[in-house]
Amino acid sequence: MLIPIGYLVVLLSVFGGFALAGGHLGPLFQPTEFLMIGGAGIGAFIAANNGKAIKATFRIFGRLRRSKRYDKSLYMELMAVQYKILVKIRRDGMLGIERDIDNPQDSALFNEHPRILDDPTIMAFLTDYLRLMVSGTMEPMEIDELMLHEIEAFEQEAHIPIDAIAKVGDAMPAFGIVAAVMGVVKALSAADAAPDQMGQMIAHALVGTFLGILAGYGFVNPLASRVERQAKEVEKVLQCMRVTLMASLHGYAPQLAVEFGRKALHSEERPGFTELEEYVRNPKASEGGA
Asked: What are the boundaries of each domain within the chain?
């Protein structure tokens, strides 16, 4: 929802300010300028990326509609799930969670937290490393190294569409200049035109520069920044799970291991110590109280 709101503010500020200053919006509507700038941007995007990067960029737009997915309530659910898993490990041993991680959809533990169960990124990371913990064949430091490599690989993969969108945004002002130059060439080729007609053609040509800068810095680059913020949110969740599991592998009690995960969250979304402790011990009661 914030993306269209931001775009609307950009349009109202630019065109509204122009109209309030006494300008007429009619000359700004130049379909051929839109065609040249937009077409050049799409063509450059296709030429600069392979099929994998193009598919990754288009897939990212579906995630923009879920901008509020990773909020405080989800982090508290994640903490509760990890707490229950670690308590079950301490009570029943590593083999006690084998059925839960092999068939999460049939697990009563995971079904108590549908938001976690429905997130494939969280579930894949959590269950994969719990399986490694159950196997008992790897040292804690080896598991930690593997987690760090996976998080780094996720970060690199997430930056493929970010870089693709940002580079198109950086190129849009240049494509606007190209469109403006083409318009000036057209104007100068009509040297026998009247001065008022010549001025109108040059004004239309300069619209290209305006549209290129507006599209690049007002629409495309902010979109790349938004995608980057969402990738950082996922990285934060992965780091939260990593430090929690590593604390457990180093022998800390479930309450303290979850506290490690809490400290990995940003201060704005980090629950308080007492708040989290009450939630992880009895999440349904906490929800009812809220």
From this structure: 29-49+67-289
